Task: structure prediction
Amino acid sequence: MSNDPKEPLLLDHNYDGIQELDNNLPRWWVWLFYITIIYAAVYLVYFHVTHTGNLSAAEYDQEMKVGNEIKAAAMGKFESSIPTLTPSTNAVVLDSGRQTYAKFCAPCHRADGGGLVGPNLTDSYWIHGSNFTDNVTVIWNGVPAKGMITWKKVLKPDEIYSVASYIYTLRGAKLATPGKPPENQTPVNNGPSQFE
Result:
């Protein structure tokens, strides 16, 4: 082992004939290490000891509160405008409504609106009202008693408006295969029942 200060300092042990050098770390690395320790101490005091700053969970709660207020305002504005709505004839709105219908409505009402589990949307018999505003209200609030969910919890107001406008265009459509029978007709009296 050399005592020359210009040569690296060899440690006393070796492994498989390899001797370890004991070089000093660069000064910039040592200072960076000290700065990270100081930063960690300040972070600990700021967020966890004095609770001056908000942790990510508290920031999330604050942002959710603001977001829910914005959402409630938008939903309230749309809900109050429902009685004055008229169906859109804009091709972009109708195409957006068609896409929303295909994704969410077609499984129950059939792709052509002929009705499966849900009622036929192409005939003149509408259980909950045949006005456009009635249709928007049904989509908005749903009909839980009949299995239709409340779509205001899933779709945005403009999506509900566009899908209602698209559904409005299905009225009177000629279907390739017969649709579900009308559901708002007076029952036909076929005579006395065998169970009476």
